[in-house]
């Protein structure tokens, strides 16, 4: 039986990844600052611990592990990442987690580790046109991310690649593009756009209005978490290091995305655009490389993924009430 460690297992993607590994017959240890608030806690062993603490890392990165999945990071949606108020925490906390985990993986001679990077590391200058963003993997340099979160992700990518070159560790790097779905943060200030919009629509009275940050013309693609996990597992089982995009190529404006959610809800709502942090003008996954290297790319429609997510968030709101 293979043994894996999932760092960040108390989080949204981490919880889903644990489930996938269990389905495949793995023994799984999870570690995070907290357990999953939605009960998505299916690891064989779960350690509440801080990966900034090298003693915790030494405990959870044991020499009997076959694989490590490093998803732990200090992160959130636009309201957390793009205001500038959390930049020092984002850079310090996430970088320290990666430094500690990689060094312990080297020390314990663990052969394979996955790192979850982000599309936020792509240069801002290639994402100024909402209708024609450039996010191919080879467009990363000259580097110019639009946030410190993106800069930390870029630094950590290079960190992992140095451990591959200097210490022979088989690293796998994926750049996630706006992962969403059930059992993810949907309120409290760290939620991302799909969850925030689903919550706003679900809470709005029929005939009312919802607020959308910016002019709503900014574009994104969003990937359902099940396909994200599928991509991670395929990358880990391949001989490709990466970095590689794991995202959808179905680009949509934020206003049109909000309209889709309103339509799913069956309500009649008005969209009101207000000032707020928005990030780059356009971002969309380029899946040419993942098709070439893995013979696969995500294909679930945004509508299908959004229907699943809206239904789950609506249930959370009703249960809370």
From TrEMBL:
InterPro entries: Epimerase_deHydtase, NAD(P)-bd_dom_sf. Residues 4-247 form the NAD-dependent epimerase/dehydratase domain. The keyword Protein transport does not apply. Gene3D superfamilies: NAD(P)-binding Rossmann-like Domain (3.40.50.720), UDP-galactose 4-epimerase, domain 1 (3.90.25.10). The keyword Repeat does not apply. Keywords: NAD. Transmembrane segments: none annotated. This is Nucleoside-diphosphate-sugar epimerase.
């Amino acid at each position: 039986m293979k043994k894996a460690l999932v760092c960040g297992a108390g989080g949204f993607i981490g919880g889903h990844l644990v489930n996938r590994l269990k389905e495949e017959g793995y023994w799984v240890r999870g570690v995070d600052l907290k357990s999953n608030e939605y009960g998505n806690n299916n690891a064989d062993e779960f350690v509440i611990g801080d990966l900034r603490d090298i003693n915790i890392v030494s405990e959870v990165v044991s020499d009997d592990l076959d694989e490590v999945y490093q998803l732990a990071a200090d992160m959130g949606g636009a309201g957390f990442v793009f205001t500038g108020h959390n930049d020092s925490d984002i850079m310090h906390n996430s970088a320290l987690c990666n430094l500690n985990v990689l060094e312990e993986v080297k020390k314990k001679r663990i052969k394979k580790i996955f790192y979850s990077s982000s599309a936020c590391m792509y240069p801002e200058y290639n994402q100024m046109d909402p209708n024609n963003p450039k996010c191919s993997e080879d467009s990363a340099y000259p580097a110019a991310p639009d946030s410190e979160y993106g800069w930390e992700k870029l630094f950590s990518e290079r960190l992992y690649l140095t451990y591959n070159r200097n210490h022979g560790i088989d690293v796998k790097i994926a750049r996630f593009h706006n992962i969403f779905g059930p059992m993810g943060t949907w309120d409290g200030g760290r939620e991302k756009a799909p969850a925030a919009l689903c919550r706003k629509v679900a809470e709005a009275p029929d005939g009312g209005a919802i607020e959308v940050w910016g002019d709503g013309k900014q574009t994104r693609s969003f990937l359902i978490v099940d396909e994200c996990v599928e991509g991670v597992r395929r990358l880990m089982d391949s001989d490709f290091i990466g970095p590689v995009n794991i995202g959808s190529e179905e680009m949509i404006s934020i206003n049109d995305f909000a309209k889709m959610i309103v339509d799913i809800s069956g309500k009649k709502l008005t969209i009101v655009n207000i000032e707020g942090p928005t990030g780059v003008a356009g971002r969309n996954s380029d899946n040419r490389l993942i098709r070439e290297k893995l013979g696969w790319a995500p294909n679930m429609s945004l509508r299908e993924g959004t229907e699943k997510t809206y239904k789950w968030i609506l249930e959370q709101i009703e249960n809370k009430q």
